[in-house]
């Protein structure tokens, strides 16, 4: 089981006293005793101040001695690794002293003197200050690596250096109208030079500190899901501290579990995120920690170091809570040799956040575009599926063991991804396309047995229920499709006399009594496999509305599709996550209870006790005979038929690991 790591935030104005009464030895011992294996501590903050006696940058004016060096030495003495934090794209001192280094957005410079100022890494800032400071830290301290923050520096910038560079590449001025066709070219320009820059920084470090850990916050994570350069050795997933937390960190851990390099998931210990100093409830800390560790990712806890260079009481408490959680889970989690075996792969494409033509790359609104993958993760979780998220770049290595591959409202696929997916289906696999099908090379996906119109027909429809329940409403653009080989499974039901863009006053109209001739759900045979197309944007709708009828309907869909499943949950309330591992003789089902999280304003809290939720775990025997089923070393009762082992449980705790030991093949 992955260990624990700790990130100490330390952005401190120049008038604050720093390191005047440190206790780094006690801090290092407390971190070691809690099982922390690595920390991030500040070499340079957003104000642009260095926390060591730099000769390259600006030392913190209120600092006594060497705050970074003192803490690093104490932690190294206790066996902890130490990464140096460098604020990459915000540097108040650099911005004040070099106005031509400032990042210029559409509304002007970002920041104000004496505070945070966004800087552009494509000015001399990188070569004249940032890289020399990195080299200085390496020479003085030989840290275990670097963590770079504030990657918004790769976004839209209208400084003279960027304008000149864009003119040299394209012969054009940077477009400022969002509808300008040149936005796609500008997005690709930002992307290519940004990736090249982080590769150069990574190479710079590896040349001077071979084997160093190098990570850039967010880059390569859900907002920017693509393969990173080889010199970038770590992915850091740092989702928003606003909004739901335990499900958000579960989603990020799911993505990280299928990436091509180690992944850290970074929540905070605070009730209101990085800018707060009031503790998150213990229950929420446990839910987030369990969700991350269940997926095999490392929990990298965000905290704030006291300016005196010592641990705050809140840190001590959070360390205790998470140490106890880790120690308890470590006794029951599968060994490192076990394999994560999801049945369902939710494919996350760069086009989902950056646009089909890359026009939205680092445009400042990427979090708004994560609703689809968030809704997909949530809906499959509430449906009891053994599902995970995989980046499009990593699909090929994961696809052969999947029972179902899902394209969740993906705008576009790379041609090589289409080939991988089609080959998988032709060999007997199952694929589910949700929403309007993706485009490949600007053309519609051509083997679904459907031909879609270009303009939406309705902005909400209903789908027929599986039983006697009412029709199920799904909001969002729906496109009519003609059959070109697919079979209609469920027809779309429009609202009564509805037209796209119109409403019954403020609301939505009732369903028509008769369905339309257009498919909401269709299925086509492709080789030995099947491809299903559900043409509604149910995943983005579920992210916004949490319509419980959609979850019930979705579970019915999964039950009817007939794809192979190693395991699934029955849970009427939803909110219990299933993560499955296996080796030759054992299956582990890790359950995480996400209930009781509340939103107050923009902030989440989980206040217990957790409700006791009955669930039924179903596991496919795959020709094996059950030896015993255990949880917390207690033998559990179960039933077996030819299709499944069934274990009834009551989830009344944050997590539980059910271990199924197989005796032999029958």
Automatic annotation (TrEMBL):
<dbReference type="InterPro" id="IPR028212">
    <property type="entry name" value="GHL6"/>
</dbReference>
<dbReference type="InterPro" id="IPR029062">
    <property type="entry name" value="Class_I_gatase-like"/>
</dbReference>
<protein>
    <recommendedName>
        <fullName>Beta-galactosidase trimerisation domain-containing protein</fullName>
    </recommendedName>
</protein>
<dbReference type="InterPro" id="IPR017853">
    <property type="entry name" value="GH"/>
</dbReference>
<dbReference type="Pfam" id="PF14871">
    <property type="entry name" value="GHL6"/>
</dbReference>
């Amino acid at each position: 089981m992955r260990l624990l790591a700790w990130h100490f935030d330390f952005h401190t104005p120049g008038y604050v006293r720093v390191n005047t009464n440190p206790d780094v030895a006690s801090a290092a011992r407390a971190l070691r005793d809690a099982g922390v294996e690595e920390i991030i501590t500040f070499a340079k903050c957003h104000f642009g101040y260095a926390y060591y006696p730099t000769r390259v940058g600006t030392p913190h004016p209120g600092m006594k001695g060497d705050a970074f060096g003192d803490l690093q030495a104490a932690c190294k003495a206790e066996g902890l690794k130490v990464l140096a934090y460098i604020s990459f794209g915000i540097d108040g001192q650099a911005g004040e002293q070099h106005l031509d280094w400032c990042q210029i957005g559409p509304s002007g410079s970002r920041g104000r003197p004496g505070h945070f100022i966004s800087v552009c890494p494509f000015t001399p800032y990188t070569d004249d200050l940032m890289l020399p400071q990195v080299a200085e830290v390496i020479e003085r301290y030989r840290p275990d690596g670097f963590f770079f923050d504030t990657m918004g520096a790769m976004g839209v910038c209208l400084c003279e250096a960027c304008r000149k560079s864009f003119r040299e590449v394209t012969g054009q001025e940077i477009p400022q109208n969002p509808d300008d066709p040149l936005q796609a070219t500008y997005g690709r320009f930002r992307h290519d030079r940004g990736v090249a820059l982080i590769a150069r920084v990574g190479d710079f470090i590896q040349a001077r500190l071979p084997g160093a850990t190098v990570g850039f916050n967010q880059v390569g994570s859900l907002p920017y899901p693509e393969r990173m350069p080889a010199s970038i050795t770590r992915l850091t997933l740092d989702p928003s501290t606003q909004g739901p937390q335990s499900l958000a960190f579960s989603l990020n851990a799911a993505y990280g579990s299928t990436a091509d390099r180690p992944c850290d998931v970074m929540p905070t210990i605070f009730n209101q995120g990085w800018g707060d100093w009031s503790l998150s409830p213990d229950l929420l800390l446990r839910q987030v920690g369990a969700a991350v560790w269940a997926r095999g990712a490392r929990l990298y806890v965000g905290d704030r170091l006291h300016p005196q260079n010592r641990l705050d009481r809140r840190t001590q408490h959070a360390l205790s809570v998470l140490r106890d959680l880790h120690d308890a889970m470590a006794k029951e989690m599968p060994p490192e040799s076990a394999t994560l075996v999801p049945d369902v792969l939710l494919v996350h494409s760069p086009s989902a956040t950056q646009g089909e033509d890359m026009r939205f790359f680092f445009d400042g609104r990427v979090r708004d575009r994560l609703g689809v993958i968030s809704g997909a993760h949530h809906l499959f979780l509430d449906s009891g599926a053994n599902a995970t998220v995989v980046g499009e770049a990593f699909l090929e290595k994961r696809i052969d063991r999947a029972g179902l591959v899902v394209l969740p409202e993906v705008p576009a696929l790379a041609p090589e991804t289409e080939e991988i997916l089609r080959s998988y289906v032709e060999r007997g696999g199952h694929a589910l396309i949700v929403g309007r099908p993706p485009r490949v090379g600007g053309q519609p996906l051509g083997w679904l047995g459907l031909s879609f119109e270009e303009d939406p027909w309705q902005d909400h429809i209903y789908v027929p229920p599986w039983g006697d329940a009412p029709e199920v409403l799904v909001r969002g653009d729906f496109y009519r499709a003609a059959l070109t080989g697919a079979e209609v499974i469920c027809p779309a039901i429009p609202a009564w006399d509805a037209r796209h863009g119109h409403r019954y006053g403020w609301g939505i109209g009732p369903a028509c009594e008769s369905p339309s001739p257009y498919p909401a759900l269709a299925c086509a045979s492709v080789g030995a496999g099947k491809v299903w197309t559900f043409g509604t944007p149910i995943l983005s709708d579920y992210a916004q509305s949490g319509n419980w009828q959609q979850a019930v309907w979705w579970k019915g869909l999964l039950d009817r599709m007939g794809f192979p499943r190693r395991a699934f949950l029955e849970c009427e309330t939803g909110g219990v996550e299933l993560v499955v591992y296996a080796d030759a003789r054992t299956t582990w089902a890790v359950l995480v209870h996400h209930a009781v999280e509340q939103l107050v304003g923009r902030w989440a809290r989980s206040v217990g006790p957790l409700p006791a939720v009955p669930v039924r775990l179903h596991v496919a025997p795959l020709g094996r005979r059950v030896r015993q089923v255990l949880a917390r070393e207690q033998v559990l009762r179960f039933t077996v038929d030819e299709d499944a082992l069934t274990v009834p449980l009551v989830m009344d705790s944050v997590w539980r690991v059910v271990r199924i030991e197989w005796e032999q093949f029958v």
